[in-house]
Amino acid sequence: MKIIILTEGGKNIGFGHIARCHSLYQAFRENGYSPELIIFSDNSIEGLLDHAQYQIVNWLKKPHIVFQLLKSATMAIIDSYLAKKSLYYKISEIMNGRVVAIDDYNRVEYPAGIVLNPSLYGNRLHYSKREGVTYLLGKDYILLRRAFWNIPKKHINRKIRNILITFGGTNRHRLINTVTHFLKEEFNCNFYTIGPQKNIHDAHGTLNLMLKADICISGGGQTIHELARVGVPTIGICFAENQRYSLQEWRDRGFIEYIGWHKNKKLLSDLSKGIKKLKSHKKRCQQHKIGKALVDGKGAMRLLKVLANKRWIGNIG
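Structure (tokenized):
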């Protein structure tokens, strides 16, 4: 069975969509299926996809390429902030409703198929429930790459020695440098960064840094789910409006210290205050437990089980 996965990402718009689509690619491959990633991107994704079968295509402007691929496909998955509503409906028509639309904020009214919101707040959005659409919403469907499915136990050290900084895939190295320089003046710690400039995109490299880090300073994209899975006490910074719901929900659940918008004039002093709060070993242990309780790494397999129950795919292991 052939599954087409359509998404976008790169150094200017981030890698979160690609990461979660890669998790689905890996889940399909684990169960003997033949997925293919079609990505609107640039060459910055090299090294990110672990020998996956993918094509870099501007499928948003060349949909005829997609339509041709779908002729031999069993189903399609779309994860996009850029695709027009009309394109979703055309693909759903071609696939007889066998389409999974991954959504973060109820962006459009989706056609027949499955709407998947893999986030902590997904079941709190007001989707207009429509005939022919199945809604899979919330934390049980959070999608993580294979490296995060089964992970070693993380030890929470008494003192903060290692601080990880990751602001997403977009090119924010100047802010990372500013933050790192400021914090080095105040805290006697080792600092590690994840981002395009450091060329650390692979899941295993990311996991190892998260296991090593005592705390993390992070944006509010896909990385926050991986941090929760590992249980890394985190200070959250908002870089885009679509991250706000996520960060507020993680704060309300007790997993992160949320310090607001990245352009906040008090960003550096608020970061300093956040780190000082997390010096409490008890508080970091609490955040660790909360994160791990909320994200179990099984979201991709749960989706496949739904697809099998719908008979869009065969049985899975």
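Residues 88 and 188 are 51 Å apart (CA to CA). The radius of gyration is 20 Å.
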